[in-house]
Write a structure and sequence with these properties.
139 residues; mainly alpha; two-stranded antiparallel ribbon; 6 helices; 2 strands; elongated
Length: 139
């Protein structure tokens, strides 16, 4: 940005603290000259990511999509890195038809599949009931 007027890293809230509805950007301002724009501006899906999700996305992109590199950078197992990336895709609405649980059942090895299911429960993207059903199906 020009003029060094960059924000100190504060991120705007995504949801209304009163009712929980999605907040919209309706005003933009220039700290340099005071110009303001008012209207209804499109939301940036990537702006709603928290710091850990942004780090995951940055590592994934900088490693050119290599999940093994993501695994090394985050210091987690491959199934955990894959589960976190799947969760990120779900949050961004980019998961397509694949549900997070589908990735867990296709993981190689029973222990990897179990670890991935548990990681999804921990991340809050899979209900404990559905996880129990998936784990019961594993050998």
């Amino acid at each position: 940005m020009t003029g060094g007027h960059r924000s100190a890293g504060h991120r705007p809230p995504v949801d209304c603290p009163v009712c929980g509805d999605e907040l919209v950007t309706s005003r933009l301002g220039c700290p340099g000259c005071g110009t303001e724009l008012s209207g209804h501006f499109a939301r940036c899906d990537y702006c709603a990511l928290d710091a850990k999700e942004l780090e995951l996305l940055q590592v994934f992109l900088s490693s050119r999509g290599n999940l093994r590199e993501v695994e090394k950078h985050l210091g987690v197992s491959y199934p955990t890195a894959r589960a976190r990336f799947t969760d990120l895709l779900v949050k961004l609405g980019l998961a397509g038809d694949e549900a997070p649980a589908d990735a867990a059942t296709s993981a190689t090895g029973t222990s990897d599949a179990r670890e991935q299911v548990l990681a999804q429960v921990s991340a809050g993207t899979l209900s404990p009931e559905k996880a129990a059903a998936l784990l019961a199906q594993l050998p």
